[in-house]
Design goal:
Low-confidence stretches of chain A: none
Mean pLDDT of chain A: 91
Distance between the termini of chain A: 43 Å
Number of helices of chain A: 4
Strand content of chain B: 15-25%
Distance between the termini of chain B: 71 Å
Largest sheet of chain A: 5 strands, antiparallel
Oligomer: heterodimer
Number of strands of chain A: 9
Structural class of chain B: alpha/beta
Strand content of chain A: 35-45%
Low-confidence stretches of chain B: 579-588
Number of strands of chain B: 20
Structural class of chain A: alpha+beta
Largest sheet of chain B: 6 strands, parallel
Shape of chain A: globular
Chain lengths: ~180, ~600
């Protein structure tokens, strides 16, 4: 609650928060990420994760994927505000529960331990397409791709087996089936 | 091979293509090549201000009163940071500005060079878009796009940052062609179905109210004409936001006054009790809505706006029509005339009871005040100013505070683009430079800045600009020796602890006027007020009018924040009743 002696209105109750994934196609020019991120920070929206890279080198298009939470009204505003930015071409927005959309995150896990424990780790990772990128007799670096919460779970689980370092990307998304987002 | 032009030449070529007549600016190291080129372009006149903020506000006044974009030219570093307030102001009030700023040469960017700052970084949140031009080949395209972004859709400020080496570099230039296809950021594609729904709501409403805003002004003078026709056709009461004043004649019987925090009793009650609310080009600002949960609880709400992000931002509406105000109302009028010839008469019957209710509210005379024959009451001063200037086409600007609200309440505007005020950002010091810009756009018209003594001191240096260009602006200061609105809040909310709101050591405004080379007039007696106002109007040149008013007057009516529209404080006596209760006080 703000002070009751306010020249402004008193905040009213907040609505239910949903998690949404925004996919934003932008011109890959200098400052464009700052515009998008600045919009979020300036208007008090939340960014849970962010992934960005150029996807079309001839047209200079980058694809930004942002995971955010907000009330339906806020989610709507984010979308409309993003669309107003000059370098933004189109904006797609998916609910995290949307079954028609694939969400993936990647993580690199470094485990420093005895061989026995390392093998146990690799077994645990099996479900998440593990790729061994580096191996010594005392350590291993594994790449896994999974959902955010799955990676959260894995990091927790592997801690006792000697997980020493985790590096992970933001989520990226794509719709299932033959259609593309216009 | 075609002729090569320097960056500075290209800047002017683009300005000429856009038919720019005036630039408001201030030179400095990083824009010298552009200033050097100025002499070769006689169709463009440069107005030298005394501070870059003044340039920005002057350009705003120019833009708001003429409908054309305002152009600002400033140097790097402090030049750019000084203009930030004006850019933010223009962004909040949707005013088209194109600001060109110099920047240190590209090879020095990022080295903390002399007068370097991250101009595009600083101005990113307060412009519609901005550009740092790092390649001379980009410059013509960026210049033209800048004008397009500033003036289309919901207008707003843009900034082009041009490093000094780019101003010297050469490239070829092809004259810009007006594109037919817009860039997809402009929305004017409302459907016939939406218009039908609107007309259906209109024909069923028993207690309707039309609530208009600055969007009508931005849509052009034609939109005000269309609005008049529309409102007369449907016979509804109409209220307006601060920015929308003048879109509908202020002395018309259908106009029920401004709404919101200092709006009239009838307008706010109509907003609260209505069953149909038609918002045309306004944005449900917090000074308008009061308490959101209790805002117009019984009404169906329609929102007509060109900016899709304005819709459902604060208030959920039942029908949203995204489009240019003029276009939307025009097609609504067409539909009504074609389909329902009887609407006019049937409407009048259905809403006659509603009008009776509004008349009852009107009898409260919420803008009334107790006049005095010893002291000049500020409301009385504004009223007299209105009476003595209403017979000519007068342009009013204001600063921010009590005087601004009194001007909005007591000065009646009959035409759009005659009222320039800082509504969204509430920038003290806006009015004087804005008056400079207005007078530039309308050299033969009467331009008055209704000011407060605290606000006007923030940009008083622009009097020098007014004198330099022989701009006969009139600065009408309601001098109460306080930051009046601050004092009012302190009286109501902070137990009359007038912390730092009294202006000690105020200048002698008459002598100040003389120091600047203009006329100073002082009035402190109600009996001499008329005569002195006439003297001000008749003087051919800039005037500072120091009108000493009752320092303790408060601005009423007022909706205390956190309260709905139907719980207004009407005046000093009403305030006592409302104020005594502890709970009421804490809610304000």
């Amino acid at each position: 609650m703000s002070s009751p002696k306010s020249a402004y209105s008193i905040p009213t109750k907040k609505g239910k928060l949903d998690t949404h994934i925004f996919v934003v196609w932008v011109d890959n020019e200098s400052g464009v990420l700052a515009r998008v991120v600045g919009l979020f920070s300036g208007r008090g929206y939340n960014i849970e994760s962010l992934a960005v890279a150029e996807v079309d080198a001839t047209k200079n298009i980058s694809r930004i994927t942002i995971v955010t939470t907000g009330t339906p009204q806020v989610i709507d505003q984010i979308k409309l505000q993003l669309k107003k930015l000059v370098p933004v071409h189109k904006v797609a927005d998916f609910k995290r529960e949307d079954k028609n959309v694939i969400f993936k995150e990647m993580a690199l896990l470094k485990i420093v331990a005895q061989k026995k424990k390392i093998d146990k780790c690799l077994k645990e990772c099996k479900k998440f397409n593990p790729v061994i990128l580096d191996k010594t007799n005392k350590s291993v670096v594994v790449q896994i791709t999974a959902l955010r919460r799955e990676i959260d779970k894995m990091s927790k689980k592997l801690k006792p087996y000697g997980l020493t370092s985790t590096s992970r990307t933001g989520a990226i998304a794509m719709t299932r089936g033959a259609q593309t987002f216009k | 091979m075609s002729k090569l032009y320097t960056g500075a030449e290209i800047v002017f070529k683009c300005l000429e293509d856009q038919e720019v007549e005036y630039i408001f600016g201030y030179p400095g190291g990083a824009v010298l090549p552009i200033y050097d080129e100025l002499k070769n372009h006689s169709s463009i006149k440069h107005i030298l201000v005394r501070h870059e903020q003044g340039a920005g506000h002057a350009a705003e006044g120019y833009a708001r009163s003429s409908g054309k974009p305002g152009v600002v030219l400033v140097t790097s570093g402090p030049g750019a940071t000084n203009v930030v307030t004006a850019l933010t102001d223009a962004y909040m009030d949707s005013i088209p500005l194109v600001c060109i700023s110099g920047q240190v040469p590209t090879h020095l960017i990022g080295t903390d060079a002399f007068q370097e700052c991250d101009t595009t970084g600083i101005t990113r949140p307060c412009t519609k878009h901005n550009w740092l031009v790092k390649d001379i080949k980009e410059l013509p395209k960026v210049m033209n796009e800048a004008f397009k972004v500033a003036t289309t859709g919901r207008p707003g400020p843009v900034l082009i940052d041009i490093p000094k080496d780019i101003q010297f570099a050469k490239t070829n230039y092809t004259k810009f062609k007006k594109e037919k296809k817009l860039n997809g950021k402009i929305h004017n594609k409302f459907s016939e179905n939406e218009i039908n729904q609107l007309i259906d709501l209109i024909s069923k409403a028993k207690k309707p109210v039309v609530y208009t805003g600055g969007g009508v002004i931005n849509s052009g003078p034609q939109a005000s004409e269309t609005l008049k026709e529309f409102v007369r056709l449907i016979g509804f009461p109409i209220t307006s936001t601060l920015q929308g004043l003048g879109a509908f004649p202020g002395d018309d019987n259908q106009f029920i006054g401004m709404l919101g925090m200092h709006g009239t009793y009838e307008a706010n009650n109509a907003m609260h009790d209505c069953d149909l609310l038609i918002n045309i080009g306004a944005r449900f600002d917090d000074r308008i809505t009061g308490k959101i949960d209790e805002f117009s609880p019984k009404s169906k709400k329609v929102h007509i706006d060109i900016d899709p992000s304005s819709i459902n931002k604060i208030i959920k509406v039942d029908l949203a029509i995204v489009g240019d105000v003029n276009e939307v109302i025009k097609s609504a009028i067409k539909k009504i005339n074609k389909k329902q010839n009887g609407l006019k008469d049937s409407n009048k019957q259905r809403i006659s009871k509603w009008w009776e209710q509004i008349q009852k509210w009107r009898t409260k005379d919420s803008l009334g005040f107790i006049n005095s024959d010893k002291e000049i009451k500020p409301q009385h001063a504004v009223k007299r100013l209105y009476e003595l200037t209403k017979n000519q086409d007068t342009f009013i600007t204001t600063e921010v505070g009590q005087h601004q609200m009194w001007a909005a309440q007591h000065y009646k505007f009959n035409k759009p683009n005659r009222w320039m005020t800082s509504g969204g950002l509430g920038t003290m010091g806006y009015g004087l430079p804005a008056a400079v810009g207005v007078q530039i756009a309308h050299p033969d018209k009467l331009v008055i800045d209704i000011a407060g003594e605290a606000s006007v001191l923030m940009t008083i240096q622009e009097m020098s600009t007014a004198v330099q260009y022989n701009l006969p602006i009139k600065i009408f200061i309601l001098n109460n020796q306080y930051m009046g609105m601050v004092r009012q809040w302190q009286e109501l909310l902070h137990e009359k602890n007038y912390s730092e709101s009294y202006s000690e050591a105020l200048p002698d405004f008459v002598k100040l006027a003389e120091a600047y080379g203009c006329k100073g007039i002082k009035a402190d007696n109600p009996n001499e007020l008329d005569e002195k106002i006439k003297e001000m109007i008749d003087y051919n040149g800039p005037v500072i009018f120091d009108c000493h008013v009752d320092p303790n007057e408060n601005c009423f009516p007022m909706i205390p924040s956190g309260k709905p529209h139907n719980q207004m404080i009407l005046g000093p006596s009403d305030k006592e009743e409302n104020k005594i209760t502890g709970k009421g006080k804490s809610l304000v």
